[in-house]
Amino acid sequence: MTTSIPATLIPGDGIGPEIVDATLTALDALKAPFAWDTQIAGLGGVKASGDPLPKATLDSIRSTRLALKGPLETPSGGGYRSSNVRLREEFQLYANLRPARTIIPGGRFEKIDLMIVRENLEGLYIGHEHYVRIDGDPHAVGMATGINTRQGCRRVLEYAFDTAIAAGRKKVTLVHKANIMKVLTGLFLETGEQLYAEKYKGKFELDSIIVDACAMKLVLNPWQFDMLVTTNLFGDILSDLVAGLVGGLGMAPGANIGTDAAIFEAVHGSAPDIAGKGIANPTALLLAAAMMLDHTKMPELAARLRTAIDQTLNIDNVRTGDLGGTANTAAFTKALVARINGG
Ligand code: NAI
Predict the structure, then answer these.
(1) For the domain with range 105-250, which CATH number is right: 3.40.718.10, 3.60.20.10, 3.40.50.2000, 3.20.20.60?
(2) 23 in ligand 1 pocket by Cβ < 6 Å?
(3) What residue ranges of the chain are covered by domains with CATH 3.40.718.10?
(4) What is the DSSP letter of 224?
(5) Which CATH superfamily does the domain covering 1-91+260-343 fall into?
(6) 274 C-alpha vs ligand 1 centroid, how far in Å?
(7) How far is CA 8 from the centre of its chain?
(8) Is 106 left (phi over 0), alpha (psi -120 to 50) or beta?
(9) How far does the centroid of ligand 1 lie from the alpha carbon of residue 152, in Å?
(10) Active site residues
(11) Ligand 1 pocket, 248 CB below 6 A?
(12) Could you read off the pLDDT tens digit of each residue along the chain, which spans 343 residues?
């Protein structure tokens, strides 16, 4: 008998509970042995307890070291600091792995199979920002400080290189802007090249590219890349670009991997414009659940889930509105479960 695996579940805000429900239904159909501890965060946390990241949620993840998370709302400009960023910091989730694979043929780009590893804790996202008041204008100047460390670069690069080998990737591309931010992103490039020479030479090819050229080449000819590894801000932007290559945010999963925990989520946000309508596409979170199954050493269940998603979308042609279909979340989930059950 399989022992159950304790895991924290955060349904999240907006469409979160809808796509989490769909994902739990699929995981139940697979008989995935997760024992869920449901917790709140984001806007839900603020409404329930005045805290976007309540202590009980942190304690739960501290004990399970594993979580599946719906999107969490963050106000733009003022308001509370992103619970996602705080979760990454709290559990030192230093690597964000975002695979992008074409599932539905016939889109603008065919046969995309690309991985991005984004550094998740450093760079311009550390939140050291302030305004400078001049002549009565409190917001006359906006300033932000970026920090990259040798150790921080090295651990995410090691994670990326090890993942490249495990996934049979042939080439890893370091993405940087070391021509302009010579120190901040130069350190990342330098550390990557040194690490490769030290430990990884010959195991895969390593090259590097400036982020703006990378963005252009991803649109002109994405097939020239195999795995990209980059700093926090560039990774955030490029991973959304890559999600666009495979049909949009509704298809893009992400894993936040760290020394203290791993948190799996969809790349997209809480989609307030469609929340509560029952029409959200749960595929990204389902693919994140497949990554979680891989992470917990259940690759057969992960493969069954991915196959069932493929079949539902491509053989049954059951698709949600964002993919040009007419199915709502419930209809998609029903068709998916039928496929999981061998239908
Ligand atoms: P968003 O990703 O929520 O939505 C962008 C567009 O994509 C919207 O039109 C939305 O309807 C659509 N969309 C997103 N996911 C979809 C799905 N599964 N099925 C169908 N359509 C989908 O981005 P937005 O509007 O900029 O952010 C909304 C909130 O989400 C913000 O508070 C933001 O901070 C938060 N957010 C949270 C993330 C997380 O928890 N990991 C990631 C990104 C944003």
Answers:
(1) 3.40.718.10
(2) no
(3) 1-91+260-343, 105-250
(4) G
(5) Isopropylmalate Dehydrogenase (3.40.718.10)
(6) 10
(7) 17
(8) left
(9) 28
(10) 125, 177, 212, 236
(11) no
(12) 568 999 999 999 999 999 999 999 999 999 999 999 999 999 999 999 899 999 999 999 999 999 999 999 987 766 778 899 899 999 999 999 999 999 998 888 999 999 999 999 999 988 799 999 999 999 999 999 999 999 999 999 999 999 999 999 999 999 999 999 999 999 999 999 999 999 999 999 999 999 999 999 999 999 999 999 999 999 999 998 999 999 877 889 999 999 889 999 998 999 999 999 999 999 999 999 999 999 999 999 999 999 999 999 999 999 999 989 999 999 999 999 999 998 6
* Residue linked to tokens 């694979």: 101
Q: Is the CB–ligand 1 distance for residue 270 below 6 Å?
A: yes
- Whether 73 contacts 43, CB under 8 Å: yes
Cβ 85 under 6 angstroms from ligand 1: no
Phi and psi torsions of 171, nearest 5°: -140, 140
What are the E-state strand segments in 135-250? 137-147, 171-176, 205-210, 227-230
Residue nearest to atom 24 of ligand 1 (CA): 269
